[in-house]
Amino acid sequence: MNILLKNIGIITGGIDNPHIEEGFVGIKDDIIDFVCSADELQPEFKAQKVIDGKNKLVMPGLINTHTHSSMTVMRNYANDLSLHEWLFDNIFPVEACLTGEDIYWGAMLGIAEMIKTGTTTFTDMYLDMNEVARAVIESGIRANLSISPIKFNAQEGNKIIDETSKVYDFYKYWHNKDDGMLIVSLEVHSTYLFNREWLNKSSEIAKDLGIGIQIHIQETKRELLESIEKHGITPSRMCLETGIFDVPVIAAHCVHLTDDDMDILKAKNVSVAHNPTSNLKLGSGIAPIPSLLERGINVTIGTDGAASNNNLNMFEEMHIAALLHKGYKNEPALVNAREAITMATSNGAVANGLGGVTGVIKKGMKADLIIIDMNKPHLCPVNDPIAAVVYSVQGSDVETSIINGKIVMENRVLTIIDEELVMSKVREVAKRVIK
Ligand SMILES: CSC[C@H]1O[C@@H](n2cnc3c(O)ncnc32)[C@H](O)[C@@H]1O
Ligand SMILES: [Zn+2]
């Protein structure tokens, strides 16, 4: 289907790209066919659907580079705890009770929430990823899903079970599914759940399949200190030594980094997923984002799961990312609005190996865009659209969302996902598993 957005404010995205005050975007099937001003419009473009952009803004869909979508089933469970108590004493025992169906419905709810708050691509790691993949394909969202080569059982003395064959099966079945809507990567949870042997093996698997890795790195001070005590090196250096950083990596958190760690991340082209809300809520700390940006490291934004955030709203995350470092360092110029949007869009695309595919509104890119209704008291007057998106717009202001050229939400109604059904299923799951 061809779609025409007319007379609309356009944030094209990318650090140097312009904002167009009243422009046109033409979508031909799954691709952006043109982006232009009124005098450049091609009259021969025939659209089956025309969206009038008066008092609206279109921008690239947001890219959530670190989440665990199925954890919506544990939303608002286990609060005000440190990461260690939260994860080992509360989350792992509940996760041990989750069925494949639970994971499917939890992921579907996470996807519904993400679409309703402007996310068009997400990066995920969880337990039964076949169930998450099923939800991704059915819902029409774009995703990078990682699967673990081991099963780690905290309930049974931290036993490790080899599940390498599941990685190969998952890759074979899902990688590039639906014309590339789903891509596969390897989950290496962390250097505290994976031993050196499995870090080495994981890097070999990722190299063999030609895929990237998703990992948690240096989320807490405790993680850093225990690594130094046990191995004599930081988790980042451990990743360097075991070959983890020889493939494209998205490293979530990166809160407690040494200067040497930052040099390693830069040298190995590692992308960082900044999760400010989760880091604040678990009392983990504040990631040195300005230092990472100064080094030219690709910094992106993630929500983490709904059990540590407690939502998957990327507008909220972008807002906090833009405010946090200004206040922490007494420096208002840090993480400016343009940088925050870039982190949440095109940098996220690059991190997922989707640069040139999504993250920017430009001819030839996949049509992954969101339309924001600016005709609201808290968004009036707009004055500066870039600032408005970061400092005033809320996730619920996203009116329509287009992913791969398909309208997945129109006037705030999801067109593919049955929102009521999904919520009732997840309520049932929560009733059963949350004690
Ligand atoms: C094996 S699937 C992923 C695993 O990660 C857990 N998890 C969720 N959030 C965090 C976090 O912030 N740090 C470390 N681990 C996290 C999740 O519960 C799953 O068990
Ligand atoms: Zn996480």
From TrEMBL:
Q: Report the GO molecular function annotations.
A: 5'-methylthioadenosine deaminase activity; metal ion binding; S-adenosylhomocysteine deaminase activity
Q: Which InterPro entries match?
A: Amidohydro-rel (IPR006680), Deaminase_MtaD/DadD (IPR023512), Metal-dep_hydrolase_composite (IPR011059), Metal_Hydrolase (IPR032466), MTA/SAH_deaminase (IPR050287)
Q: Which residues bind substrate?
A: 95, 189, 219, 304
EC number in record: 3.5.4.28, 3.5.4.31
What are the required cofactors? Answer: Zn(2+)
Q: Which residues bind Zn(2+)?
A: 66, 68, 216, 304
Q: Where is the signal peptide?
A: none
User: Its catalytic activity?
Assistant: S-methyl-5'-thioadenosine + H2O + H(+) = S-methyl-5'-thioinosine + NH4(+); S-adenosyl-L-homocysteine + H2O + H(+) = S-inosyl-L-homocysteine + NH4(+)
- Describe cofactor binding as the record notes it: Binds 1 zinc ion per subunit.
Stretches assigned to the Amidohydrolase-related domain = 57-408
**Role noted for this protein:** Catalyzes the deamination of 5-methylthioadenosine and S-adenosyl-L-homocysteine into 5-methylthioinosine and S-inosyl-L-homocysteine, respectively. Is also able to deaminate adenosine.
Q: Any idea what this protein is called? A: 5-methylthioadenosine/S-adenosylhomocysteine deaminase
Q: Which organism is it from?
A: Pseudobacteroides cellulosolvens ATCC 35603 = DSM 2933
What's the name of its gene?
Answer: mtaD
